[in-house]
């Protein structure tokens, strides 16, 4: 056989790959193999990679996302599912608007040309996408339904106008998005940004906080890191609200705590700078200092305030009474207490809370220990936050601190000064954006000042064209349009339109369902949703594990509550991929360290790129770009390209049939290897989402096939090899579909695609089991010799075989010690390699 890259007529895989891939893509398009068949009688699967934002260029992250979704989609089709694997464009957003301001381009044109460029790039990847279902969220035929959804939210009491913080540019007199604030200054004016409160449209996602929290228990197909991000964002906490009486019996200040047992250690109470009682609780001589502090604090975002450890603050001059011991303690304000969580007021226990410790240290407040550390020696240098024994705590002194939590809580409750409370970190969703390139909020302000929804029949509320992006005195660009607002009502009155557009997270919170059906009459049909949802697999970066995935879940819960979706939870399996780095850092245009997928596809083909991106390490780990690894994948594929052609020379291309077995030991072994590998590859992709091990198995498998392709065999055995080869191509087809289909056609002589075939119905017993496995035996990690385990493969089988025939050397090593564990160690293709017997 010639060198791996050389074909018969002196051509090579590298020379041929571009035309081969484009031929396959044309054949797929012509045959309609990737058609979406909404009414298919087959079981259904909806597989989706997060839709791209059309920035202008697709990057390796996109290639990775669709390589993952495509592997799942293609395996599902082989397994007999009808598959929906669509793509669209998350087309609204600020960059289009910035381009409009800078280059005088229309956001719609800028976006459309970016979509056209990126569509070409993504098409070159050869993903089995349902392009028939493509849409852009900036298309009025889509955003009309985003507006419809908003009206549904209004109808069901989910939307309201509330105060929300915005970034105000005092020179341009406009609201800026967070991305437009650079080092605290406006991106165009350079002016220091002020934080201001403005009336905005908000959504009551907090109504669903408990349901969103509870739903997480169902999500067994999500990674622990994604679930923990969701838990953190929703932030459910159970605690106690405790009333600290104000002087002169003038009501109470209520604090929220999760550690009620520390109440005897309180040495001050701190409230948020924007707590409603600040003014009332500030004594006249403290007022100037308090006022100055509040002004400074409110210029900072909540995030800045909480991540900062300077722990500034000022006292208000008033005391409150600790209900546990009747002691008076001073009230402070500090910006590490946020007004939007709990009650916006906390009891400070410096001895047992590190933030309170730091605060007390800076401001010279006393520290009072009420939980004794088990081995206390020197005076503490930080807060003690573990379990211990209560002290100086009235009748609770001497009690274990964990038991004291509920004991103290009950006592305070019974005394009528406290109530149990459940709190969430989740805040309502402030939806309004003072931006142009988004879906206009379909609301009208009536002459009497009340708000009404635009009638459904008048949707969409179109974005106007007559907008001046350079006007620097408008809160929102829509205000510069003469055609947009006001509007004459049928009854002769005149109403003003809402001038804001929706946060683009609203588009991505429901877009998945639009793929089901691009209807003019409804957002999507409930029957289609009943048949196709929830998403079986959703692929995207872990950075979306909070915001997007929270909003997506919220809107799905909402749509379920009004009967439009069959399940609350939108996503069964969430595959959160890692990122592709260059020399250890994230690729970015601004750093100039990017690798273009186009360039790689040009040189090596899409199959090489796709196989490479999923090989070697788990898909959810970050990986460093390595050209030599890429070339190794290219050589591997080149080897398959030439052996497939070689097989077609030796054996006249013809259909393949599954053999019964073979009298030839090597061929029989190959059949066993092939069927076992295919079972594992399907399991890797379907259940373990372990694409890199599936690819490692393909390497082993094609390595075993190769020598047999040109071996001296009977016709029957050659046919058996051809069968094994073509079935292995189905495994390859999940990652390198072009070459797999090309090789399939070459070997079978068919004009039809491999993707019309089914996954082979084999088990790892189909050809009997290979009964020759030998593995290493260890005692306490020390090698004692090889053992024959015959055809045992599961942990239990292997341990049973090993125990039954324990070699003398192992017996001597174990001696009279007690065996505590037996561990089967597997290689990365999960074949057993070693058994380790562990003794006490
Ligand atoms: C007294 C105490 C003693 C606390 C102690 C902790 C340890 P999670 O679990 O996240 O809900 N807290 C309450 N409201 C706050 C607010 N608006 N801003 C900042 N901090 C606030 O956190 C609850 C704890 O966070 C509460 O329990 C309170 O401090 C603080 F040894 O109360 B703790």
Q: Keywords, please?
A:
33 strands; four-stranded antiparallel β-sheet; 840 residues; 25 helices; alpha+beta; single chain; 36% helix; disordered N terminus; five-stranded parallel β-sheet; binds ligand ANZ
Average pLDDT taken over every residue? 93
The ligands found in this model are: ligand ANZ
Describe the sheet with the most strands.
5 strands, parallel
- Helix percentage: 25-40%
Class from secondary-structure proportions: alpha+beta
Integer-rounded radius of gyration: 33 Å
Shape: globular
Side-by-side strand order of the widest sheet: 2-1-25-26-8
State the total count of DSSP E strands.
Answer: 33
Structural overview:
With 840 residues, this protein is an alpha+beta fold. Strands 2-1-25-26-8 form a five-stranded parallel sheet. It has a four-stranded antiparallel sheet with strand order 4-3-7-18. Helix 3 packs across helix 4, helix 20 packs antiparallel against helix 21 and helix 22 (715-733) packs antiparallel against helix 23. It is globular, with a radius of gyration of 33 Å. It binds ligand ANZ.
Secondary-structure map with pairings?
Blueprint: H1 13-31, E1 44-49, H2 60-78, E2 82-84, H3 94-103, H4 107-123, H5 140-155, E3 159-169, E4 174-176, E5 181-182, E6 185-186, E7 194-203, H6 209-215, E8 221-222, H7 224-234, E9 237-245, E10 252-257, E11 268-271, H8 278-281, H9 287-297, H10 302-307, E12 314-321, E13 328-333, E14 345-348, H11 354-363, E15 371-372, E16 389-390, H12 401-414, E17 418-423, E18 429-430, E19 432-433, E20 443-445, E21 451-453, E22 487-488, E23 494-497, E24 501-502, H13 505-508, H14 511-514, H15 526-532, E25 535-541, H16 547-561, E26 571-577, E27 580-582, E28 585-586, H17 597-604, H18 606-614, E29 623-624, H19 627-650, H20 665-688, H21 691-709, H22 715-733, H23 737-748, E30 773-779, E31 782-790, H24 795-804, H25 808-814, E32 819-826, E33 832-839
Parallel strand pairs: 1-2, 1-25, 8-26, 11-13, 25-26, 27-29, 30-33
Antiparallel strand pairs: 3-4, 3-7, 5-6, 7-18, 9-10, 9-17, 11-14, 12-13, 15-16, 19-24, 20-21, 20-23, 22-23, 27-28, 30-31, 32-33
Bound molecules: ligand ANZ.
Residues 237, 256-259, 262, 337-338, 341-342, 344, 346-347, 349, 352-353, 423 line the site of ligand ANZ.
């Amino acid at each position: 056989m010639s060198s791996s890259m050389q074909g018969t007529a002196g051509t090579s895989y590298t020379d041929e790959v571009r035309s081969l891939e484009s031929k396959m893509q044309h054949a797929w398009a012509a045959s309609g193999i990737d058609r979406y068949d909404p009414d298919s009688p087959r079981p259904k699967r909806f597989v989706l990679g997060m839709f791209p934002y059309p920035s202008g260029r697709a990057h390796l992250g996109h290639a990775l996302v669709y390589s993952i979704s495509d592997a799942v989609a293609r395996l599902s089709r082989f397994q007999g599912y009808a598959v929906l694997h669509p793509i669209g464009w998350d087309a609204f957003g600020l960059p289009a608007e910035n381009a409009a301001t800078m280059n005088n381009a229309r956001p719609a044109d800028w976006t459309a040309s970016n979509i056209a460029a990126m569509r070409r790039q993504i098409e070159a990847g050869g993903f089995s996408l349902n392009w028939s279902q493509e849409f852009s969220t900036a298309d009025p035929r889509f955003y009309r339904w985003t507006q419809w959804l908003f009206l549904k939210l209004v109808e069901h009491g989910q939307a309201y106008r509330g105060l929300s913080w915005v970034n105000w540019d005092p020179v341009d007199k406009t609201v800026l998005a967070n991305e437009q604030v650079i080092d605290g200054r406006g991106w165009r004016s350079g002016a220091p940004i002020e934080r201001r409160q403005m009336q905005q449209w908000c959504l009551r996602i907090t109504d669903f906080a408990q349901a969103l929290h509870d739903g997480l228990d169902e999500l067994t197909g999500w990674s622990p890191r994604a679930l923990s991000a969701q838990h953190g964002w929703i932030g459910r906490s159970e605690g106690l609200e405790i009333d600290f009486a104000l002087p002169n019996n003038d009501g109470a200040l209520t604090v929220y705590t999760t550690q009620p047992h520390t109440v005897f250690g309180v040495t001050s109470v701190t409230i948020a700078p924007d707590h409603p009682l600040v003014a009332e609780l500030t004594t006249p001589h403290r007022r100037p200092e308090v006022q100055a502090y509040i002004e400074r604090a409110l210029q900072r975002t909540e995030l800045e305030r909480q991540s900062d450890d300077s722990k500034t603050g000022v006292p208000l001059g008033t005391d409150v009474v600790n209900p546990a011991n009747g002691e008076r303690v001073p009230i402070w304000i500090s910006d590490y207490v946020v007004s939007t969580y709990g009650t916006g007021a906390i009891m400070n226990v410096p001895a047992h809370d590190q933030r309170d410790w730091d605060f007390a240290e800076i401001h010279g407040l006393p520290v009072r220990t009420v939980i004794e550390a088990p081995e206390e020696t020197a005076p503490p240098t930080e807060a003690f936050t573990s379990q211990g024994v209560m002290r100086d705590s009235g009748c609770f002194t001497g009690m274990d601190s964990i038991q004291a939590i509920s004991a103290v809580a009950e006592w305070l409750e019974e005394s009528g000064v406290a109530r149990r409370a459940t709190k969430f970190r989740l805040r309502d969703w402030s939806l309004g954006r003072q931006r142009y390139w988004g879906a206009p909020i379909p609301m009208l302000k009536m002459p009497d000042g009340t708000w009404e929804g635009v009638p459904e029949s008048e949707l969409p509320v179109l974005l106007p064209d007559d907008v001046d992006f350079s006007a620097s005195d408008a809160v929102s660009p829509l205000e510069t349009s003469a055609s947009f607002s006001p509007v004459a009502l049928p009854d002769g009155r005149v109403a003003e339109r809402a001038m804001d557009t929706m946060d683009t997270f609203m588009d991505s919170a429901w877009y998945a369902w639009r793929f089901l059906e691009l209807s003019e009459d409804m957002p999507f049909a409930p029957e289609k949703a009943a048949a196709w949802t929830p998403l079986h697999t959703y692929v995207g970066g872990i950075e979306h594990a909070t915001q997007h995935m929270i909003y997506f879940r919220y809107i799905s819960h909402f749509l379920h509550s009004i009967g439009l979706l069959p399940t609350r939870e939108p996503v069964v399996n969430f595959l959160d991929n890692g990122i592709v780095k260059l020399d250890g850092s994230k690729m970015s245009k601004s750093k100039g360290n990017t690798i273009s997928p186009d360039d790689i596809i040009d040189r090596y083909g899409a199959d090489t790129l796709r196989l490479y991106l999923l090989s070697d390490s788990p898909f959810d780990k970050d990986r460093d770009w390595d050209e030599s690894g890429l070339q190794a994948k290219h050589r591997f594929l080149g080897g398959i390209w030439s052996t497939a052609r070689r097989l077609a020379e030796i054996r006249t291309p013809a259909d393949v049939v599954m053999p019964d077995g073979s009298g030839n030991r090597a061929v029989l072994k190959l059949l066993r290897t092939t069927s076992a590998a295919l079972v594992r590859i399907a399991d890797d992709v379907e259940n373990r989402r372990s694409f890199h091990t599936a690819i490692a198995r393909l390497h082993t498998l094609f390595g075993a096939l190769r020598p047999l392709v040109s071996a001296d065999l009977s016709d029957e055995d050659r046919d058996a090899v051809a069968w094994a080869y073509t079935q292995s191509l189905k495994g390859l087809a999940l990652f390198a579909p072009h070459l797999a289909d090309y090789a399939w056609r070459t070997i079978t002589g068919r004009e039809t695609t491999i993707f019309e075939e089914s996954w082979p119905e084999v088990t790892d017993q189909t050809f009997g089991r290979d009964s020759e496995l030998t593995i290493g035996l260890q005692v306490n990690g020390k090698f004692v010799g090889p053992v024959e385990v015959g055809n045992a493969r599961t942990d239990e089988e292997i341990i049973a075989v090993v125990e039954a025939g324990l070699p003398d050397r192992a017996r001597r090593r174990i001696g009279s010690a007690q065996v505590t564990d037996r561990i089967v160690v597997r290689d990365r293709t999960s074949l057993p390699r070693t058994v380790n017997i562990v003794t006490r």
